[in-house]
User: Fold these one by one.
Assistant:
Number 1:
Amino acid sequence: MTATRSVLAAQATDFPRWFQDVIAKAELAENGPVRGTMVVRPYGYAIWELLQEAMNRRIKATGAVNAYFPLLIPESYLQREAEHVEGFSPELAVVTHAGGKQLEEPAVIRPTSETMIGEYMAKWIQSYRDLPLLLNQWANAVRWELRPRLFLRTTEFLWQEGHTAHASAADARAYATRILYDVYRAVMVDVLAIPVVPGRKTRRERFAGAVNTMTLEAMTGDGKALQLGTAHELGQNFARAFDIGYLSSEGRRELAWTTSWGSTTRLVGGLIMVHGDDAGLRVPPAVAPVQVVVLAVKDEAIAAAHTIADELTAQGVRVTVDDRADQPFGRRAVNWELKGVPVRIEVGPRDLSAGVATVVRRLRDSAKTTVNRTDLAATVVAAIDADQAHLLAEATERQVSRIADVATVEEAIEAAASGWARLPYDAVGEEGEDRLGESGITVRCLQRPDGSLPVEDNEPGLTAYVARSY
Amino acid sequence: MTATRSVLAAQATDFPRWFQDVIAKAELAENGPVRGTMVVRPYGYAIWELLQEAMNRRIKATGAVNAYFPLLIPESYLQREAEHVEGFSPELAVVTHAGGKQLEEPAVIRPTSETMIGEYMAKWIQSYRDLPLLLNQWANAVRWELRPRLFLRTTEFLWQEGHTAHASAADARAYATRILYDVYRAVMVDVLAIPVVPGRKTRRERFAGAVNTMTLEAMTGDGKALQLGTAHELGQNFARAFDIGYLSSEGRRELAWTTSWGSTTRLVGGLIMVHGDDAGLRVPPAVAPVQVVVLAVKDEAIAAAHTIADELTAQGVRVTVDDRADQPFGRRAVNWELKGVPVRIEVGPRDLSAGVATVVRRLRDSAKTTVNRTDLAATVVAAIDADQAHLLAEATERQVSRIADVATVEEAIEAAASGWARLPYDAVGEEGEDRLGESGITVRCLQRPDGSLPVEDNEPGLTAYVARSY
């Protein structure tokens, strides 16, 4: 594994550089030609596809349906909601010319689609019978980023954005909360093996146009925070701006209550930053495009490698055979480590005659064990399940151990040098947020003492999670 | 069904208007706010999702892998291939401002990604071992259309675009041909129940930058042609422009041969135009979001409707229950007809006591039959399979019967008033294409006498298919 370490910066020395190196060497993505854009390479995209499938299934289970709204939004739409346009204006990409002519009204490339979808919700909703209206779309979006970083903050990103309309504030809140927990947290924890802290954003960290932003925050390998998904209560702000109204069962005209919620290709960045180690990526089996690689050490082992692969495929395992026996074994092994494939099976001529194979579990310190050929499939299938759980346990342990309970903003600033801080929000307040901000630290989210989410900005007795973030 | 007919223009009277009406009334899509853009509504998108799944599976079976390339292409990229930029320039949407500033180099929104992907192929391909490189992406694209029409020609459309590089012209051709037949034609015929005529485009109808465009042409309900998918041999044009080279096994530096191929949301338009009738849409079961609707005529039948639906769901049928017993039965039935749901099961109180249900097969003249409750599930499952095949047979029959064999351009022009014409291309030629063009008619494609595809532009003895088109 020495060879691997040499191609990547060490995490402890320069984590952001390590992150860049892993993305390049594991062939996950690279920079696009227009500043801040990203090319997602096949291996990175395959992870995204598996993640997307898991997310899409859970979104549909909440009753939402997929649709597709245009990329190009008339500039005037954004201007209808004051906070929204103020928040997004600096990040817009604008189409001024098309078809060889200047456009009468410039069109912006969607930074998010509240305004576009608001316009259509207003048309489609007539009566209380049409509510709730639960829409989702899988799409690209563009926000001109000042400090782009692959997967985490790219000028163009891929995401799902959900947009719903409800007959009451309570119904809107209940649905957005369900998305936060049953969709986002479920995918993060059960699929990506990433523990997350749920909470409410403070006023200053809120989505532009929302009355409440709920977030899920993950801890990266270097102890920073990464926001992985948000669900917003939009109150009646967009309903008012786009006239999303309905006739109640009593025959009165009422304004709807809307929500929006999004999760992006940043989730792949989260997976890298939470699970990766100095040898490279470590992919949770649930989203691993290759769960098992069978490595034929020499030509004589190629046929056996394929037989093993077929057995595993029959058990529903995603498996690939590395039969490039003409290339150095060590380099191939290191490459699969870099790519974070959970289980590597090595088969050489000697193994064959001894009726065994070597199993290397990437998610468990790459410990090697010799397994009888007859037990191989069962052992590997069990390892896949166990190691998915192991990754989550490991990340949870780190998260718990690196959150320091402190009492003051000064202590929080000190603690945030190496992890997160947790302290009473009453000891922070808006003034404390200013001071944290001067040190590049933010309040990631607020929770009630029992871990549940506050429903008001100024509930007393809240706990603040404070950290540096990506 | 009289009620339905009144909400749609009659096909025989005004087919394009009927098309628009169906899209609106079946809630498939509507116009976006920026001219030519499209909102794909949930019902239309659900059809697209099923189609996409079928297409994606077959694309992957050819060995291609999915990736994602940026939406924004530097303007200079397009200029590197002379024919390509000439062909696409008039249709480009250009981003001149972003992040509050004018861009140093304007970026175009991808009209197609040969140039973007060519740039990365050049980086990723080193030796013959890296070939073939088989990439695909699911994405949106923008081409500023002069005469937009929902699904058929929208300013923004959804599609998959495949881009591959090969070590030889023969390999490139073989792969593009495989995509044409094993992916595109397979999906059109086996999934969408749309018979298609494969052929080679004439020089003037070719993709900008290609040396050969292969196409699949469908016949619409009004006897016109609709190009549903194309695969292009790009020769070494883009390899030269982007320096996509490789070291051969003999150690020589060679230029690669590339292909590209695309299919779009137009396929949904094709489905509507090929199968729809005066009562509305008719959706092939393979892509029907709802294959069976169980309609409870009265409140007393709601429980039974759900039981029937559960039985069908258990058999893998996509089924929905219409339990809006408080709304007029006739209006509900007409609505499901409009949406083209293949099978409708009607259950009323009298049916219940007689132990029967009424089955209406939308894809077979909506004939009603009374079926014993015990035979219901088996009957419906059999009907779904049979009616998928029936749709294809019906469309094939129409296509065959409306292609007229003629001998001259004049006869072709006459025949194209009500269908397609087929004649020797030697009797047309480039001069004949001009004359056809004056009447708004084009050569859709060329075939050899045995139905196979010509590999040269000027092969003698070719058959031309000639028609008006959408």
Number 2:
Amino acid sequence: MAHKTDIEIAREAKKKPIQEIGAKLGIPAEHLLPFGHDKAKVSDAFIKSLSDRPDGKLILVTAINPTPAGEGKTTTTVGLGDGLNAIGKKAAICIREASLGPCFGMKGGAAGGGYAQVVPMEDMNLHFTGDFHAITSAHNLLSAMIDNHIYWGNELGIDQRRVTWRRVMDMNDRALRQIVTSLGGVANGFPAEGGFDITVASEVMAILCLATDLKDLQRRLGDIIVAYRRDRSPVYARDLKADGAMTVLLAQAMQPNLVQTLENNPAFVHGGPFANIAHGCNSVIATRTALKLADYVVTEAGFGADLGAEKFMNIKCRKAGLAPDAVVIVATVRALKMNGGVARADLGAENVAAVRKGCANLGRHIENVKQFGVPAVVAINHFVTDTEAEIEAVKAYVAEQGSEAILCTHWANGSAGIADLARRVVELAESGAAQFAPLYPDDMPLFEKIETIAKRIYRADEVLADKKIRDQLRAWEEAGYGNLPICMAKTQYSFSTDPNLRGAPTGHSVPVREVRLSAGAGFVVVICGEIMTMPGLPRHPAAETIRFNEEGFVEGLF
Amino acid sequence: MAHKTDIEIAREAKKKPIQEIGAKLGIPAEHLLPFGHDKAKVSDAFIKSLSDRPDGKLILVTAINPTPAGEGKTTTTVGLGDGLNAIGKKAAICIREASLGPCFGMKGGAAGGGYAQVVPMEDMNLHFTGDFHAITSAHNLLSAMIDNHIYWGNELGIDQRRVTWRRVMDMNDRALRQIVTSLGGVANGFPAEGGFDITVASEVMAILCLATDLKDLQRRLGDIIVAYRRDRSPVYARDLKADGAMTVLLAQAMQPNLVQTLENNPAFVHGGPFANIAHGCNSVIATRTALKLADYVVTEAGFGADLGAEKFMNIKCRKAGLAPDAVVIVATVRALKMNGGVARADLGAENVAAVRKGCANLGRHIENVKQFGVPAVVAINHFVTDTEAEIEAVKAYVAEQGSEAILCTHWANGSAGIADLARRVVELAESGAAQFAPLYPDDMPLFEKIETIAKRIYRADEVLADKKIRDQLRAWEEAGYGNLPICMAKTQYSFSTDPNLRGAPTGHSVPVREVRLSAGAGFVVVICGEIMTMPGLPRHPAAETIRFNEEGFVEGLF
């Protein structure tokens, strides 16, 4: 029998009205702002009314370093949410929103896969509830206000060569990466260099995902550094009086979006910051709201645990006062084989030795997660070509590390295939074993924070940074930004900064190319290697094949 | 007693759930896609199911040439809709959506005013249901696909110097009017000149507003000319295979938005093309849907009747097969005084002579409307400073023209203040007097069409156009575009192309500066004078004062 595709399964979903999904969490219909019949935003007033309630348990789903073989982190997040509900727990999941632009380059992403998906898939790949459009508008309003301020006399003394605030668009458009603006004469302003990033790379996105409420949102927006003066003093968005209007533009986008899984369980899909130059987690407000409404909240972080889980713990949990109760590390036999040196073309053949070798990558992530004081369990996301011996090799290896690996077949079987993991997660979370603490204290000097992550998480020998970068970090410390956490931007494919170095490398160095201050979001971005903030379209973009077919279904988007 | 502001009145509105508003028109709740509790889109399936129903009567509200004194065209449209409902008719109104960008420059617009408004006002000035964001995305996807095609080898042989498709953003940003893109080396493409227009100026906006369904939308999007080759042959969006993906991006935006008036009557607010380089009317699909659901549909067109009504008749009605049954021409005593030569500062003083002089402007619009075979009535939109003698002067003048002017106080009194006009509109519409015909036939040569509008509507002596422009028009005729209607882009402040020439000028010339082919929208744009397609922000943009106040209300937007 031919397998159904993700989209075929999604289209067969028996969706319930979103009010019924909300009712599962006790959200009254009048506090759900509907977007169609299958999406809704939770009202600000209702969220405020929850503040005295106790929090449920927070479960983070993370993964080994990603490979082209695929790990299925979101699929496992969705599956585990369904699994917890299936064993009688009141559970909700919290994941990120998809970016529209990239869907027209490569194929768009499903939220999960197989029988562990969130729906409506089309909407989630397109405009959804308009959050990213609101972020684009707020970001570009600030850009326009900067140039407008200079145009009308530049009272703030902005050095136009030192405007750091670019523009954004939710589109893969390489032609906009580097541009010259304000050509054409006096009426159009002063010619200047500029450029566009993709919307998910906007600091406004990171801010929206870290803000606790509208007041906090406005404060953070005001804190954005948009430019410097000739004397190098910063100019803030607040100086331009842009923070109020940006907040108004973002108010609805701040409200978490509720949708459902294929098994009609609640899923909050909200926010989607880059996982390199930003922290790569769904919004704090969605996670917090879910914790007030559900006994178990399953969430995920971007990329592998070296980037995603590290930032989830050191940035999101630290800043939002969250404490995870258990961590699930997702691995697949195929991805472990690739970490063990097998080429993609050879993944079909059984190779227990390669699996065992690749387990070194998994083992280090287990160790790392435990450094944060949180118990970990491994989910083996089953693939049809996995052999019994390969699966046993993973289980045996993980057992040696003092942890447990559980085979999960949620992709094929939905919640029924992930009940064992769900039960183990409940045990871990209820055990009270978690003693969460971030990896470094707030008051550690910035460079030491970078070294701490590089040495304890990446297992590098050293961090390489020239004087200019160290001076910049010290200058920020003197300006009062020394207490911020670090947001590492490096390749997701390796513990090191070399994307080809799979497994569990040691003896490497972490060269810092550039540091950036995201003063509104509240972190220092440390860039190691090339980071692309505006993707391009491929030779044959997916857009060429996206269309409505004769039955009125969207084709080519998935 | 101090008058309440529009926003105060709007906030006191007793809004009904949008399903109740839909029910008034017989739209089942499952065919309303809600956006919150007070906005909804009407489903495609429901619209299709209406095709066999008879149409209601179509009433166009237009106005004299606009002045800084204000005419209240939208206010009268809304008031008349309420008035018709109040006298027992099943009526709906159809107006345009507001553009987000300009709200952050000058104050945002209300939809109507006083006790004749459409709500929710905040949403309508911000993201509303996301239609304009969808248009921005679809437009810029096409832009990215053009540059991407050139980047990957330029198989279609696009002459990069002749790319006519710019980019758009819904923001007032003068710095983006003229830019150079693709700087920074090989990976970013070939440097080129480019620029951004505001979203409402996008041809995609005009297309969405003229398309009859998704198929027609896709066909029109495919017809867009994006560039020319060295041999001057056109390259279409279809050649880039962009039309399918653009249609998918626009599918939801194509569904008309339903909201309500302060008196809880149905209002379709959908689409908002520029009224100079485009046709300035709400969407065909909204108007057609309303005509199937209501016995009376009141709609409006942009600017004064010389631009708005002319395009409504010659472009929208011609192309959509619509036939207006009556026209309301809105005038105010103040605006007539300004047309009669009174300065804005002196509008407070009674000046019957100036009113009578300014009536020449009104008189010509009455004549013009009758040229289309549609009966006209004048609405005097009452202002508190109007004197009895001034109002009588208008009434007497209009009576001399064989028409009738009716005093309306809907701004102060809602539907109760406009019952007389409503009754007269019903008489005119039911009389069967309307014998609508466009002003020129499809097969008239393009230049003759321009002359027809200039001479019969503007009362100019001649149209001035150099050889290059006449050759271009002939080339388009040879390419099969000769049957398109003309979309005039000239100042809205005068019948002539001189904005300072108020009243009813004669003996003037209409100089054509440029012609553009909107092959997808299906009209030839004729530009007479400077047309700004990307506004800038003023010295102190409204954005500086827009914020949430302590009560949680938006301030500064209105």
Number 3:
Amino acid sequence: MTPPPETAGFKFNHTMLRVKDPKVSLKFYTEVLGMELVSESKFSDFTLYFLAFDHSDGKETVEEKHANRLNREGILELTHNHGTEDDSNFQGYASGNTDPGRGFGHIAISTPDIEAACERLESLGVPFKKRLTDGKMKNIAFALDPDGYWIELVPQRMAQHP
Amino acid sequence: MTPPPETAGFKFNHTMLRVKDPKVSLKFYTEVLGMELVSESKFSDFTLYFLAFDHSDGKETVEEKHANRLNREGILELTHNHGTEDDSNFQGYASGNTDPGRGFGHIAISTPDIEAACERLESLGVPFKKRLTDGKMKNIAFALDPDGYWIELVPQRMAQHP
């Protein structure tokens, strides 16, 4: 089926997840996963952080990335409701993968070298829900972000099966 | 901060949401929002549907879209656990926006003409959580998908503020 002409140019711009502590989450998504902060919007009660991978080989400037943030795909929006990071009564957010609260499943990062990516994450102390060697599917893994959201790691090219 | 070199080439490939009835969801994401089905994986208990917008002006073939599905951004994975569509006891999935189950917030589609996009969705009977005219932010809207997940609609270029 051809998409309706009225949807021409539509893009799947971003996915939003709430996070308890932006310092911890920003460190994880930038220093561990390699995203960059392209936009930040602070409101009285909450702050929004928009992150994305650079696909310009470092050629785009910070200003260009900011200007282009709505006209691309692959943006991750992290919402911080102020105060959760210091609230000892805060229960944490639901991963979406257990009842009650099942619905959302995961975000996925595709990598040129899945083995190297998983080894590096493991060496950095990132917890895993499923390692490459666990279970039947040996070409995907699930790591956990600081809030417990599942992050699938997938290869960019599937191995050819005989 | 420059991203770690080990993360070069990483892409935010997809976001996964569980859906109750794939017939209803596929119709919504293709006929209403304009995505295309680029891959489908059927297992004994569940089926995975991978959807994405075409950004090739219709030039890429179905085979090319399938082959490229892991090496791009902006893929939406819908997981159907077989049987939910006919199960009168099935409670539905959590949107992620109410307790218990708060965490995931929404996915967002950016559009060249936000007014036209919202008018069309409204004329097709899509329910809205927030219309363009509701609340303070007049340039974004939130529609609801068939499972009640929030879909933000955003412009691709922000209006210049005086």
Number 4:
Amino acid sequence: MQIAIVVYPGLTALDAVGPYEVFNSAPGCEVRLVWKRAGPVVTDHGAFTLGATHTFAETPRPDVVVVPGSSANTGHAMKDATLREWLIAVHPHTRFTTSVCSGALVLGAAGLLQGQAATTHWAVMGSLAKFGAQARADERIVRSGRIVTAAGVSAGIDLGLALLADLAGTEDAKAVQLAIEYDPQPPFDSGHASKAAPATLALAGERLAARGRTPRAWD
Amino acid sequence: MQIAIVVYPGLTALDAVGPYEVFNSAPGCEVRLVWKRAGPVVTDHGAFTLGATHTFAETPRPDVVVVPGSSANTGHAMKDATLREWLIAVHPHTRFTTSVCSGALVLGAAGLLQGQAATTHWAVMGSLAKFGAQARADERIVRSGRIVTAAGVSAGIDLGLALLADLAGTEDAKAVQLAIEYDPQPPFDSGHASKAAPATLALAGERLAARGRTPRAWD
């Protein structure tokens, strides 16, 4: 079972590492971090660099594709012709083509969300309609046939476990959940836009907008 | 506010990336990934490489230290004299000296858990006593003065948010929780050893043990 996690400059590290840790904790999964070139890729905050392990050309038939989001560079990923063409080429053959956070917009830009129910990070939920998708803002994981989209950032862990349960069975997925001790105890109940106080929503929104306006190496 | 996350060969990626994403989503935090040398560090599954940004020598006064765990190499990190000496040197000056998962054993090997309450990954909980620590197997985050230890892997997200609430205030921490959409919905209730079925516990234990026996580049 080959899992291809797309790693483009400016991705959000946890979007990729949540599913990575889940799949790599299961036997029989080969997890690749794919980009145009193997080698270092800088994430959105600039401090964290991770390494692409394989190129798109080396990865023509992944079983699962995961497209992470970005707080700073989703737009560039959406416009990237190589990434778009690869997604269009591999999608007909995958078991699941998936996204975390604003990665849904990258799937949308490749035309894969037309007529599909989908979710994404709350701050860009309104963009899904542009790609012909029906936004499901209240669902953390949205399945629409082989397209599976997850909410923002930390939802990639839930996505990984849900897919693994389908692909390898619930016993495997439960064992991985225990191996990564995923028994979450968030200190607040502010993790979803419908639960956060208006002041929290305003503060988080301002900061994300400011981050989107910060010039980056890839701009 | 300087946050130093220790990245040693064989660490578990999510142990580091959970706290990384939390702290880097807050304004005013400078997050460093520290090791003996700046540059690539291979994580425990072998596929994921991340980049150390600074050396120990460049990081003499971090405000917060985070030591991640490993499914394959905690023993080497515990024996590493440079890491141990750095921990002993910086700890008296930190706001918090912390660990995720089996990173607690690295703090223990540096003598920092003597007489402290602590937690770690369930699979190595029995090792805490060797370092004079009182194990708290049922707590996800254990505070013992400036020493704060977290349970396995995914608990680093909860640790980051709990520390951020202390360091920057609850409003900041709530906004970060919303920014990373941390509204977890695990598919099963198998994330803690006390909740998992005996078969799940046995399967996860076998796999972790097998991973510990797999020879690695750093052995």
